[in-house]
Structures are given as structure tokens and as C-alpha cells.
Records
---
Amino acid sequence: MRLYDTARGEIVPFEPGPVATLYSCGITPYDAAHLGHTAVYLAFDLLHRRLLDLGHEVRLVRNVTDVDDDILRKARELDVFYLDLAAEEMARFDATMDTLGLLPVYREPRATSAIPDVLTLVGALLDRGHAYRSHGAVYFHATSFPQFGQLSHLSRAAMLELAAERGGHPEDPAKRDPLDFVLWQPSAPGEPSWESRWGPGRPGWHIECSALAMRELGQTIDLHGGGSDLVFPHHECEIAQAEAVTGRTFSRHWLHVGMVRLDGVKMSKSLGNLVFADDLLKQCEPAVVRTALLSHHYRQDWDWVPGDVEVAADRVARWRRHPGDDGVVADAVRARLDDDLDAPGALVVLDEAAGSGAGVGSGAALLGISL
Ligand SMILES: [Zn+2]
């Protein structure tokens, strides 16, 4: 199959070995999953299903960020213990993904399980001169890793702008260079804290994913990804943290999923313009929600329009009149998926097949749509 790779900026062959190792950045469990999250995990589910269909064993890891600024703030607001909030929201998230027909992932490791791995990695970065201690924290020194920027291809000015927008705190006076990023930070009073050689504290934002990906899948993985808003700084920093220690390629392929907008504005918790997957699944069956989401190519940013579910419901109803299995239809769906996961094209294959009276059951099953 062929997939777009963010690092190379083009569609390239994606040919993992018999065991395909994939890592997708998961949720911070402090609120329900909105359609932006759902679109990301659905794209990974599509890839998961096609790789199984091709005969691979698939090890898809999706982490859970159960300690960070957002979850600690929300737990304080609700006056609950942050891990209780995490447990509740993780159960809700898993139930939603299950209802939507996502295959179970190989592992869902939690950030709080990665503290020993994080400490080892931070120690190794300090030993190799890629990190330094300042004001009770440990920072990665970005200019010590000349390939910094190899994924996002951004200018220094553009990186600084995005870092400021996305919680990178370039203005932090403890940094030697504004592009440096925190690996280990002292906890504020009342926040969870772990002992370390550099003083008590908690991990920075990016380090858990480097630590967890390597712990669960090895030093080099086949594919890593998430939402396109993670390209910089999150994934760029993950590469630096891992490769500066191992000297090996961290991920052979990078896959990023476009943003879902409402009325032209990206859905985000900070803006509150959210449509929740749970609410949609109360109104319509999973096959319809899946079809509505898959009618947009994973790489595009797109606008959620409520009428999308009605269009999807009509399509599913038409396919249901031709539920038989037709190998030619299934192969045409496979061909669309192998062309950079062209789900919208695969849905058109089903429309045309149903229109000509061919059975679409096995083709729909490849997309996780049960008829
Ligand atoms: Zn991540």
C-alpha cells in the first residue's frame, strides 16, 4: 500500500514486515471524545483493518496522557483525584470507540506507567549532552540535535510561533534557547510528583510518547501519527528525544490526520465548539456515523455539517439492499485503501456497486461498516 508520509512530504510505499508496529498519540482523559479525536482514531482503525487484511500482525499502541496540565486543572475544578477522573473518562472513551466499531488496540499504556522509562530517557539525554538542568527542571537543548525540524520542515520563526501557541512556553527564562523544551518539571503545590535525581517533579509534555513507543514497540517503529496539530511541536520533539539517545530512526513513517471544523473553526476544547461522538451515536447507528466520518479523506481539514448523517444514512440504506459478498467489489475497495487510505473513494465504490446490483457486504466490512 501507499501512504502520505509527513516527513518526506509525499505518498510513498508503506511496507511493514510481518509484525506492523504503529503508535498513535491518544487522549488526555478529562472530557468526552469529540469528532476531531474520533476522526484520528478512525483513520488508524482503517489502516489497522487493511494491514490485518494484508496478513500482518498489527501492534497498534495508543497512549493515555493521564497526567498533564489539562487533567490536573479539570480535577481541581471538579475536586476529584486526577486518576479517578482519568479512569472514568478512559472507560467512557473506550466504550465510545467500541460502539463505533474500532478494533481493540494492542496496548493503551498510561503516562503515569512510564515514569521509570521517562527517568531513564532523561538521564540518557543529560549524559549525552542533549539536555541541561535549569531552575529545578530539565530541558532538551534543541540546537544540540541538528535534525530538529526534519518532520515539520518549518523555519525557526514558524516553530517559535507554533511553540508559543501550543504550550511550548518559548518565553520561559530558564531556557538557554526559546526552542528548548521541558523534559522534567517541578510539580506545583498539590500536583502529583515523583522522585528523580533532579528533584521531585513530573514529566514534560512530549517525553511520555518517546518513552512509551520505545518501551512497547522498540527503538524503531513502522508508523507514528496523530492529529495534524501534533506535527509541531509534539512529534518533532518526540523524534529529537528518541533519536538523540538511540542514534536510530524513531519512526519510518509519519501519518497525520486533518482537523475537523465547525463553521470553519477547528473543533477544540478551549473554544468549546465541539460535537461529541457519544451524542451522535445516540442519534444514529454506528454504521451511519462511520460512513459520515469516512466520507472525508483523512488528510483533509473538513467542516462537520449536521446534514452529513442524513446523507450517510441514505447511503447505508442503499448498501443494505445489496448485502451479498462480491470479491470484485472488495478488491476495488482494497485498491482505494491502498491509495493513501482513500475512504471517500471506497465509499463511492460501494455506491456504484450497489447501483449496479453487486453485493457490497465484504467491501463495507473492510471499512468496518457492518450492513
Ligand atoms: Zn504523543
---
Amino acid sequence: MWIGSVDAIAVVAVRGSDLVGFALLNRDELALCYVAPEALYQGVGKGLLRAIESLALSRGVSALRLDSTRTARDFYARNGFSVSGPVQVWAGLEGAPMVKHLTAEPSPLPAGCR
Ligand SMILES: CC(C)(COP(=O)(O)OP(=O)(O)OC[C@H]1O[C@@H](n2cnc3c(N)ncnc32)[C@H](O)[C@@H]1OP(=O)(O)O)[C@@H](O)C(=O)NCCC(=O)NCCS
């Protein structure tokens, strides 16, 4: 449903012919952000996040929301997000609501994102 939403916009990270990352902006929410295991901890996630923030700004979003998995919470905190409410459990998975107030001017998409 998220991917098919008319309001959603996807960003992918590619390395050669391989898709190594995928993120989805749905209105003011970062709905999905996933990096392939072989590409973890090499800056792909940060690049996806920068691209999503840039797209969100260009669409007039001033506060970008997300529900973070437990494992990704530190990643988002390091990238400017703050916990904005109590942890929710959905389908057995914990999600911590987080928000980042966007103030910078939109920047070009990082290399490798389109
Ligand atoms: C969260 C996620 C998107 C981050 O992607 P990533 O490409 O690994 O992120 P980056 O490489 O940009 O940044 C990772 C950081 O961890 C650091 N790191 C390096 N090795 C590490 C290790 N072995 N373990 C943990 N962190 C490590 C990196 O140096 C970097 O630090 P920095 O932010 O201070 O620069 C990715 O881990 C992921 O797909 N997780 C599983 C799915 C998930 O939970 N998604 C979130 C849904 S809300």
C-alpha cells in the first residue's frame, strides 16, 4: 500500500547494476529505509536519508517523521532525529516515533541515488 500510494516517492541506491538501498517518503513520513546486508555501514543509509530529506523539503515538509526499529534508533539519532513519543508495537515489531525539523535548503541527490 505504501509503495503504491500516489503520494509516495521512492529513492534507490545502486552500485553497478545492483540495488543496495531503498527508501520511501510518504507525505511527511519516511515510511521505509533499508540497506542490503553487503552494503551496510558504508554511508548508503545516510545518503538515502539525505536524499529523502531533500525531497521532503522540496515538497514543503518542515518536520519529517518516522517510526524507527530498535536497531535503527541510534542511526536516526546521529542524523538529527529525536524521539517524539512512546514506543508502539505493530505486528510484533517495536516502532519508536521520531521527528526531525528540516531547515536546510534542498540539496542535490547524493551520487548513486536516483
Ligand atoms: C538503519 C540502516 C538503514 C542504516 O544504513 P547504513 O547504510 O548501514 O548506514 P550508514 O553507513 O550511513 O551509517 C551507519 C553508521 O554506523 C557506523 N558503523 C560502522 N560499522 C558499524 C557496525 N558494525 N555496527 C553498527 N554501526 C556501524 C557507521 O560508521 C555509521 O556511523 P556514522 O553515522 O557516525 O557515520 C541499515 O542499518 C538498515 O537497513 N537496517 C535494517 C533495516 C532497518 O531497521 N531500517 C530502519 C527502518 S525504520
